[in-house]
Every structure is written in structure tokens, then in C-alpha cells.
What we know:
Elements: H1 6-22, H2 29-41, H3 55-63, E1 74-81, E2 86-92, E3 97-101, E4 107-124, H4 127-131, E5 146-157, E6 164-166, E7 173-190, E8 203-206, E9 221-228, E10 236-239
Parallel strand pairs: 1-10
Antiparallel strand pairs: 1-2, 2-7, 3-7, 4-5, 4-6, 4-7, 5-9, 8-9
Amino acid sequence: MPRDNMASLIQRVARQARITFRSPAGPTFGENLHRLQQLLDEVRAEDLHLAPRGPAAAAAAGGGMPWGGVVPPVSYMHICETESFSMGVFLLRSGACIPLHDHPGMNGMLKVLYGTLRIACMDTLPPAAAAAAAAAPPPAAGTGPCHRALYRSRQHYTPASPPCLLSPHTDNLHQIDAVDGPAAFLDILAPPYDPQHGRDCHYYRLLEGPPAGAEPPGLPREVWLMETPQAADFWCGGEPYPGPRVCL
């Protein structure tokens, strides 16, 4: 059952996010960010009136079927947005993937509400790192620019896990996969995407083949990425948010 204080909790999450990201370069940013992490870690799926569901339920909920009656692999529930941050819920069907993408100049926090996510985190390296690389990018189909990157981690997250964080300089690129069933996560981005202010979303593809041995290469390690258009089989539908109202 939802907890009686959930409405005040999600409201406090939003208020703390507004306080935290209003001055991301201020002297109290670290303290405010830690407080926001603590609040976010308390949120559970049932408190937002969410439960795992299959494709039929997703369509009935209003996820939309814009392409030939096909349910979107990912849906988004908008909760609130200001100039300094946005907050909402992403819902992934079983086996769905949000492809590798970046968050230019942005901070982010992700809290799993149900299911299991596999999150791969990377960072692009300065152009000098690419120039100093021992080998050129491997051949690949495509004409997008290549970037040298640091593949930092690849971990599983569940509702019992603490929030996954990203910053402008650490873990700024990530790929998110739903593992063994549907999954959902609460997402905070600060500031929101805004192409007019240089915060457009760019997609990437990892340029490396399968590992030569039985074990995959260790992490962290340097890799090559190619910038690509948004994948044809990925798009995001919209659904109404059913949880407690948030006012800012």
C-alpha cells in the first residue's frame, strides 16, 4: 500500500531538486545533492501508483501506438519541469533499451522503481586522447564522427539500489537496458534538455567487436564511440502520470 506521507515525499523531492540545481556551482551544492539522493532513495513504485505491466496494459494506459499499431519500447510520464530541472518516470518494456546517449552540461539522477536495469556508463575524452590513442577507430558502417571515450562501468540496478548519478564530467553517457522483464525508473535531469541552449541529445554506438577470450575486457577501459542518428527501432511514447501531484 502507498505510504500516507508519499505525497509530501514526492513534493519534497521536487523542492529539494529545485534548491539543489538552482545553484549547481554554489558552495552548498554537494550537501544539497546528498540530501536529494537520500530523498530519492526512499521513493517506491507503489507510492507513485505504478506496477509492472505488459504491452497490452501499456497501450491501454495511453502509451500510444504511433507506428503501425506498435507499442513504444519506452514511455515517459512527465511529473514537473522548471528552468533548472525536469522530473518524470521512464517505463521500459521487457527487453527494451534506451540507446547510448549523452547529457551535455547536465547533472542527472536515476532511481529504479521496479524491475532490473543494466546501465553502462561512459565519458568522452578530450580530443588529445584520441590523437594519442595507440590505434585508429575500427572500421564501421556509418559516417558519424568518432570519439575516444572511457567506458567506466556496467552494473545492474534494482529498487534496492541507490540512485545512479551522472554529472557533466562523470558518467555523462549511458545506455539503459531492461533485464528479464519490464522496468521503470524515476529520472531527474538538471537542467532539462534544450537544443537552443546547446543541450541536445546525441546518440552513440560502441565500436568494438566481441571479446577475443571467454571473459569480456575489464572496466574501466578506453573505447571508440561513433556518433549516430537516433535508432529507427527506438522511440518514446507518452503516458499520463498517475501519482501524487507535484506543485512548484
